[in-house]
Amino acid sequence: MLPLLLFFLPLVYGTESPLCAECDCQLGYGNLYSVNCTSDVTNLFEGWYWIDPNDKTYPFKVVTIANSRLDRLDKQFPRSSMESLSLLNCHITYISESTFGKLAYLEKLILSHNRIENLHPKAFAGVYSNRQYRFLPLKRLYLDHNSITSLDREVFKYSRDIEILSLAHNPLQAFTMQTVKAINSLDSLKKLDLSYTQLSTLPSRFRPSATLRYLDLDGNRFQEVPTELRALSKLRILHFSNNPIVRLTKESGFPNMTTLKILHMCNMSRLLEIGAGSLSELINLEQLYLSDNEELTVIHKDAFLKVDGYQESWPPVIELYLQNNKLSSLDMELLDWDVLEEIDLRHNSWRCECQYRWMTEDLFPNVILKSGGDQFKTLR
């Protein structure tokens, strides 16, 4: 048995890429390698890193390269079987035409924490063949923490299957029409991260795909909720924390968003009041995260109330997080408390007055009962 094992080992290790001499290569499921390079990698675009002497691609699945000084990606990666490629903190400033075109199985591309200012309009195109570019199978693209101010309208023309796109922490400031058209062209987009991009408005033509379910607008400059959100007909999750809104009113509040289930509005350092009707159009809201707003003192009793003729209704909020605000009271008519399953009220300035006894006598026992007595999980 031992001689057989010794004979087999050279067959395995003899097929390793020279890349594994510089990086950590771990053999995983399906005899595919995960490669992790944490120091400067030379000859990254040389074929012998990726293709063996028999002209077969080395069995890479996930490749991560960090802290290399790549600067401009103006060459094509050789063909490879990899499905995920990360180029992190590699000082990249520019990505040229069809750089990843030969990576026919690439579904996840992470280009975070670089210095990218410009992307060639065909940066994410496949190889050029028979007078046309082939499509890349990209599904997840991360361009966060770069210096991108705009996108060419055709930058995603050959990667239309992208489902997750992150542009977070780029100085977009305002959407150019080119950028809007680029984002609108993604027919399969499900998650869009525009957090910390210095946005103060959304353009009227901002119409992402109807497949969009998750939008992150945290850390921007919105002083009111953009009415353009009403066009997102299937949106379920919205992050809107850390924006400089002072008072949320019926006029500056949320437009009709009937599919929204989860809303985050935390760390709003200037927020003083949630006014009447400001949340009334979120008729199917189930989870509200409204915490760590250090100046928030008032949630109007009609903040959620929707009146249609003689009929009144409230969203079916089942989880409510109000910790670390400056609240002193909650009105008994704020919500339909019977559907509530979890609530966090810690670290507020609650007033101990008779008119608020309903919280201790009705609200808290009801929530605890629904939890089967696990009060520490559901009531905080």
From TrEMBL:
Highest taxon of the lineage: Eukaryota
GO cellular component terms attached to this protein's record: extracellular space
UniProt keyword annotation of Repeat present: yes
Key word Zinc-finger present: no
SUPFAM superfamilies linked: L domain-like (SSF52058)
Keywords, comma-separated and alphabetical: Leucine-rich repeat, Repeat
InterPro entries for this protein: Leu-rich_rpt, Leu-rich_rpt_typical-subtyp, LRR_dom_sf, SLRP
Residue runs in coiled coils: none
PANTHER family hit by this protein: AGAP008170-PA, INSULIN-LIKE GROWTH FACTOR-BINDING PROTEIN COMPLEX ACID LABILE SUBUNIT
Protein name: Uncharacterized protein
